Amino acid sequence: MIQLTRTARAIHAGAIVATLTLTAAVSSAQERMLTPADVATIESVSAAQISPDGRHVAWIQSVPRTLRDEEDGSARSELWVLDRESSEKRPYVTAESGVSRVHWTPDGLGIAFLAKRDGDEHEALYVIPLAGGEASRTASFDDRAINSYAFSSDGKRLALLATAPKGEEREKDEEHGFKPEVYEEDWRPAELWIADAAGEDEKTRLEIEGHVSAVVWSPDDRHLAIAAAPTALVDDSYVAKRIRVVDAESGAVTARIENGGKLGAFEWSPDGSGLAMIAGAHENDGAAARLLWAALPDSGGSVVPRRMLPDHERDEHDIAWLPDGSLVVLGSRGVWSTLDRYGVVDGKAVRGESLLPLQGPALRGMSVSRNGEHTALVASTPEHPTELFTLNSAGELRRRTNSNSWLSEISLGVQEVVRYEARDGLPIEGVLIRPIGSEGPAPLLVVVHGGPEAHHPNGWLTGYSYPGQIAAGQGYASFYPNYRGSTGRGLAYLQRSQGDPAGKEFDDVVDGVDRLVELAIADTERVGVTGGSYGGFATAWFSTYYSDRFAAGVMFVGISDNISKVGTTDIPEEMYLVHHRKRPWEDWQFFLERSPIYHADGANTPLLILHGKDDTRVDPGQSREMYRHLKLRGDAPVRLVQYPGEGHGNRKAGARFDYSVRMMRWFDHYLRREGGEPPSWEIDYDEHLPSEEEVEAPGP
């Protein structure tokens, strides 16, 4: 069975104001399609914080570099402020240096952020007055950058996280050419410091064991809840991060929260009796997506948190306490976002109340005013990337920014929710973007998400590596499956893929393709596949093991050899605990047979492989192995493109644009044109960029 739900038709009419434009409203007379050059200019809202009184919202506007005209780099982060009542929007910081970690001061009169500005050796903490004026430096170090910070509730003190410096002797050695990198041993911890928020120079370091990555003050400002891992290594940050409660004066540990799995956000209850957190249910939970409660023991010691909600087919992602002791929870149920308010009784979430209808925008973040009357949300829809929204206590959701007004001139393909059954009867869900102007079976691009502990929401699904609406404008359908192992459907669904890499999880994807072929949506002879990380693993698998089913593939930072992957990744424990559930030396043959290179003989899917040369998550050697095995043993063209200075995903404008152009050119060549030998490896970038007259100045 397949059920196709039209996104725009399913949204509750009373919850979304007229500012949300729907695909159905796009005039058929509009003929301009989305291009890679358009995607390279897309601005978005990446974070938002509402003021304590709910009157203003500070947000970060992500602004890409202008190709050819600006120095290459990642997008700039600008600070803007909305007056919620008047709807006035003002830029506060638009400097080249950008901003991060935006928060309001407790009195609501200033906006704090981290930045490296003129004269700074390292990233420092600044506060800019809401009333306007210049930002003033509030805290800094001479020898290290501030990573994160938190104000005490009375606004008098600051908790600062800063990574320990290399030291003078080591810096002198490096000046003379002694620069060895001792793998996984030369890490430096982030330390916890307490400072006067008035800007005094004196700071006190609290002796904390391990690497501290997050800190939250208790309501009475006497204690701090911190997230600490044994080391600063990525693997420890995934699987070994635990909450410790420490005395704010001495740093002495007064309680240990033994969360057994991954850790996300955590917040003190208003009465200070405990903490709610978003974390894994246990060490084999692949995602920090369960709502847990830890009541602090009166006499100190350790406590194991417990589930606040029963097992169900949904996940939790963020939390905010309200003054009355209730809890606002942002989550997901399949492809849809949820926003609910719960009472809390004896550590259990009860009397749930939905604050938004289920089939609304895809929520990425929230911030709640001190009295709980107003909420700022970051969200996207199938018609636009992430924007700023506000929600009031009456349930009125308003879109507040329009970062890409030119999108109203673009024709977009209709986006639909897809439900079907896998071959073993398991219900699977995903998202389909239909091609524009196509009535019969169309070439299909399958876009596989990474993780696998992630999922495709029913929001904006187009980016430099996600073909989405670019492909729709060129006559492609795009299918975004949430195969077993994805988030959004609870712990049981997430664990269905564990111990079975490239098994039923990827069969689910093929079953979805088969159903789209049955419905005459997809042309069985013209199916392409793409994805990054675990999605790159899927692409490699479909281009070898399932080669007879896929006519072209674009693999990004993907896995090709599960044996060498374990030996070269920076997350071997995470892979063991929540992916493979066994070690290679326990079953060498299993790991080999679940590797795409094992199935490279006779593979006939033309494959474009792309990888950042500085990737530590999936070593670039994985792509080189895939390339070499296909060159030696495969029967189809293969090309490897490496990006210097990029890691596990492209950050800089030039590398992103190159990726978009290469991806679409590869698919066009093998799914819509003559195929055969691959297109030229060289690209005339100017051919794909608009002229100066065609460029519009976007803005929120």
Protein traits:
alpha+beta, Lipocalin, Rossmann fold, 9-stranded mixed β-sheet, 5-stranded mixed β-sheet, globular, disordered N terminus
Mean pLDDT figure: 93
| Poorly predicted spans | 1-30
Radius of gyration in whole Å, from Cα? 25 Å
Strand order of the largest sheet: 1-31-32-34-33-35-36-37-38
Question: Would you report the number of β strands?
Answer: 38
Structure characterization notes:
16% of the residues lie in helices and 34% in strands. It is built from 13 helices and 38 strands. Among the domains are: 43-138 and 367-410, Lipocalin; 411-690, 3-Layer(aba) Sandwich (Rossmann fold). A hairpin with a 5-residue loop joins β31 and β32 (427-433). By secondary structure, it is α+β, with helices and mostly antiparallel strands. The strands form 8 sheets. A 9-stranded mixed sheet has the order 1-31-32-34-33-35-36-37-38, with helices on both faces.
